[in-house]
UniProtKB/TrEMBL annotation:
This is Acyl-CoA dehydrogenase family protein. Residues 28-114 form the Acyl-CoA dehydrogenase/oxidase N-terminal domain. It comes from the Bacteria. PANTHER family: ACYL-COA DEHYDROGENASE, ISOVALERYL-COA DEHYDROGENASE, MITOCHONDRIAL-RELATED.
Amino acid sequence: MSTTEPTTTRWERRPDTPEGWLERARDVAALLAVDAVERDRAGATPHAEVRLLKESGLVRLLGPVEHGGGGQRWDTAYRVIREVAKGDGSIGQLLGYHYLWAWAVRLVGTDAQIDAVEQLYTENDLFFGGAVNPRDSDVVITDEGDEIVYTGRKSFSTGSKVSDLTVLEGVLDGTDDHIFAIVPSDQEAIVYGDDWDNLGQRLTESGSVEIRGVRVPWESAAGYVDKRFQPLVYNTLNTPTIQLVFTNFYLGIAQGALDAATAYTREKTRPWPYGGDDKDSATEEFYVLDTYGDLQAKLWAAEALVDRAGQRIDGLLHAERDSVTAAQRGQAAVLIAAAKERIVQTGLEIATRIYEVTGARATANSAGLDIFWRNLRTHTLHDPIAYKRVEVGRYALLGEIPEPTWYT
C-alpha cells in the first residue's frame, strides 16, 4: 500500500451519503491493489490493512451517527465490501465479516445490549472477528451462577489477531441452547493457532482458536434475560446476511480479476501472428473481444442479481425486529442462494478464462493474476454450492422456501 498523502489528512471528513462511502471504498481499494499480490505472497498479519480500514472510516459504516458512525444501511455496506474486495479479496472478506459481527448484537441481543455494544465499537473504532464455525460443536459453556464460561476449540476464527472484539458461540452444557457473546480479543484465555496456511484469502487470519475458560457475565449473553432467550424470526437473518457478504466479496474479486486482465491485455498481450487474419494489436483480435464480451455480460448479469438480493434483505435488516416473518426471511434467503450460485460460477469462470486472452506470459508469478482464482476457489468451498442450487430448485419446483439452518 502506498500513498503520497497521509490517510489521516486525506480522510478528515467522513462521507455522509451512500455514494460518498462508495467513493471512500474505491480509494481504499486503489491503495490495497498497489501491492495486493506482494502482500498475499508474504502472508503477514494484516495489521496495516485493518488500520487503513479504520482510518478511512469504513469500520464505522454501520455504526450509529450519534456515536460517530456512518449510519448507513446494509445495501451500502454490501457495495462497500464489493469495492474493497476489488483491490484485495482478503481485506474485503475481513471487512464483510466485521460488518456481520458488528450487527450480530442487533440480530440476537436485547435493546440494552445493542445500545452498549454499538456505542462501544463505534466510539472506539473497534474491529470484530468471530469464532463461530458451526461445524465445530466442541465449545462448551458452563453456568457458574452470575457468569458463563466458554471452553473449547474452533477450527476457524476469521479476523483473529487483527480483531479488537471477538464473537464467541457455544452450547450451554446439558442443553441445546446456543449462546453468543462479544468479548475482548486480547486476553490470555483466547489463544490463536496461527495455522491459516491456505491456497487463497491468505490475509484473513482465519486459523484455529483455543477458548480456555473465557468468562462472560450472564447479562452479556446475547439476547438472554434471566437466563432465558426469547427467539424472533429476525434472529435467523444472520445466515442469509453473511451468505450475501460472501456473495459480494466474490463479486468484487471477480470484478477485480476482469479489471486486471483487461489492463494486462491492453498493455502487454501480443496479437497472434499465425491466424491468417493478423492484427496489429491484441485488442483487435476477434477471439479476445468475443471472450471479454462474454465474461463482462455474465458479470453484469450476476451483479444485477446480487444487487436485487441486497435490496431485499436490506429491507428486513432495517425493519422492526418483531415484524419480520418467516415467509419474508425465506424469500430473501432463496434469492441470496441464487445470487451466490451465479457469482460462484461466473467468478470462477472469469478467473480461469482471463488467461485465454492475456497470453502465456500472463502466467508469470510477477503478473499476479493467479490471486483471483486462488481467492475465489478457497472461499467458495465454504459450503457446497450444490445445496444452494437445491434450495433454488425446491423454490422453483415446489414453492418451498429454505428453512433456517447454520448455512441457509
